Automatic annotation (TrEMBL):
Residues covered by the L,D-TPase catalytic domain: 64-196
Gene Ontology terms: biological process: cell wall organization; peptidoglycan-protein cross-linking; regulation of cell shape
Name of this protein: L,D-transpeptidase
Species lineage: Bacteria, Pseudomonadati, Pseudomonadota, Alphaproteobacteria, Hyphomicrobiales
Family to which this protein belongs: Belongs to the YkuD family.
Active site: residue positions: 156 (proton donor/acceptor), 172 (nucleophile)
Organism this protein belongs to: Enterovirga aerilata
Amino acid sequence: MRKSAPVLAMMLAGTLGLGGCFSAVPDPKVSELDAKYMAMVPQAEIDPHFARYQIDDPTGEAPGTIVVETKQRQLYYVLPGKKAIRYGVSVGDEAFGWTGTAEVARKAEWPAWNPPAEMKKRWPHVHAVEGGPNSPLGARALYLHQNGKDTLYRIHGTNEPEKIGQAVSSGCIRMRNMDVVELYNRVPVGAKVIVR
């Protein structure tokens, strides 16, 4: 039996413990290239706990700030009016997690991936990948700098959407591709990022 949208919303509200203080955020419009590449990336069921919603802001930070709560596997983009958009993410496992304050120094669409030297040492089999559906950076990347230096950490899409909600990366913050496109469209270069 198919449930109506209001019934599903009420079920999700109960599941998420949000009562009446959340609303779904629609998918952004995407280019033909985005649609083509996204169709080539594996799809995964979305746990409602990690779906994209507009909620009451739990961070207390200024509008325009990105806050990543690593233990909750949630990223918040703070909006005016004490609201935020919440996205489910994957984070670094305990050995590779990073916390701190940074800023978005650069943004890229369907970026190429070149593993850092320390990652190549750990895993000699990894190699650079051109931008596109096979890149582990997915549809978009936000490059994080701290005190003017590249942290080598990114907020980016993924070609493994089934891992959203897990601690599996080498420190980067992974998002579903549609979510990272939505965030990318909102965030300017220079935006503050807090990873807790």
